[in-house]
Design a protein that fits this description.
Blueprint lengths: L2 H12 L8 E6 L5 H18 L4 E6 L4 H13 L4 E4 L8 H9 L4 E4 L8 E5 L1 H15 L3 E8 L4 H14 L4 E10 L4 H14 L5 E4 L2 H13 L5 E6 L2 H8 L5 E6 L2 H18 L6 E4 L3 E2 L11
Parallel strand pairs: 1-2, 1-3, 3-4, 4-5, 5-11, 6-7, 6-8, 8-9, 9-10
Antiparallel strand pairs: 10-12
Length: 303
């Protein structure tokens, strides 16, 4: 055998085997939201990079409907997927279905929202996001005034953001919390509806914390229609928020950023390690956050 050919053969044999293509199930809560579109796109890119372009993604949206999401996960099991990436519609109710997948040898990686029984979870540090946002709101209001929280679906992300916000507001005795029970459903339409209702319900609103940017965008529209000078702060750091801050629109003053790309890539990397080794070191990963405002919005990368 010629020496050159032998060298080529040895080189090929020494290369690590390419990762086999996989089939993955992805269930998110709202594919009308650019945030979750970015989550899905990033998972697809990272799965292709790590497991090859022949890998298959089965993508579903639960629309925050728990029974619908259960059916989706059952479908993934019937399709014999290798792994599931999940944004839970209900972190606790989904637990038995997650356990059923686990018993079938299918690991579940929770993204953005916790899910009982998940193999690992990757989320924004949502308590910190709420704290950062409402610290910023308190600064703008000089530590006094009436604050309203527009809540959302009671998944861990929203619950923890509201918890962090309340912790920040509690440091300012002259800030009065009007309420946190209005559910804007995490949507533009919900934010508009609940903000319009709140403007009728309360005589004086100085500041609003919205649990995500879609809610804030709807609330901003209601404030503009009412010619209100109340200010809004939120969580996401979305392209819509960046545009609002660069345009220096007066009502919407800040948003604690999330990075759906970082979150999703981290989840796929952890899943790849699990599929290869059957174990992982970190089962709860928190992605840090910062506050985007008109002053620094141009420095943030868009989703």
């Amino acid at each position: 055998m010629p020496k050159a050919l032998l060298i080529v053969i040895l080189f090929i044999l020494m290369q690590p085997p390419a990762a086999a293509a996989i089939k993955a199930g992805v269930s998110v809560t709202d594919l009308t939201n650019p945030y979750f579109i970015t989550v899905v796109r990033t998972i697809k890119e990272e799965v292709s990079n790590r497991f090859g372009d022949d890998s298959v993604l089965l993508v579903r949206s639960s629309a925050y409907d728990h029974p619908r999401q259960v059916r989706q996960l059952d479908e993934f099991m019937a399709e014999e997927v290798d792994v599931v990436f999940l944004v839970a519609s209900d972190e606790h109710k989904i637990g038995p279905t997650v356990q059923k997948l686990s018993n079938a040898g299918i690991p579940v990686f929770a993204i953005d929202v916790r899910a009982d029984g998940a193999t690992a979870t990757v989320t924004t540090d949502n308590i910190r996001a709420g704290q950062v946002a409402c610290d910023g709101l308190a600064r703008v209001l000089d530590g006094q005034g009436n604050v309203l929280i527009i809540n959302g679906p009671q998944v861990s992300a929203a619950v923890e953001r509201v918890q962090g916000c309340k912790e920040a507001l509690s440091k300012h005795p002259k800030l009065h919390l009007l309420g946190d029970s209005l559910n804007g459903t995490g949507s533009v339409e919900g934010g508009l509806e609940k903000m319009a209702y709140a403007l009728q319900l309360y005589d004086d609103i100085d500041g609003i914390f919205a649990i995500n940017d879609r809610t804030a965008l709807g609330a901003e529209s209601a404030l503009l229609q009412a010619n209100s000078k109340a200010v809004i702060i939120s969580v996401d750091g979305s392209p819509d928020a960046k545009t609002a801050f660069l345009e220096r629109r007066p009502n919407w003053i800040g948003s604690s950023i999330q990075s759906p790309e970082t979150m999703s890539r981290e989840a796929v990397q952890i899943a790849a390690k699990w599929l290869k080794e059957g174990q992982i070191e970190e089962v709860n990963v928190l992605i840090p956050t910062r506050l985007m405002t008109s002053e620094n919005a141009s420095s943030f990368k868009e989703w």
